[in-house]
Amino acid sequence: xxxxxxxxxxxxxxxxxxxxxxxxxxxxxxxxxxESARNGLDEAIAEVERGEVEVFHTFDEFKAAMN
Length: 67
Prior knowledge:
Blueprint: H1 3-12, H2 18-36, H3 40-49, H4 59-66
């Protein structure tokens, strides 16, 4: 969504909601910063913690699982 569309929508928001809108935007920016701070290793660790990684003890076990 282009910024111009968002700017037009903001013009329709009553003034008494502007603090809440501002806080929500701060939250979104914080969340984006937090997401971008994660690297590939962080994501790999999270996958292991969520149990999304399958471990094979031999290559034959891996091949059997792929069939």
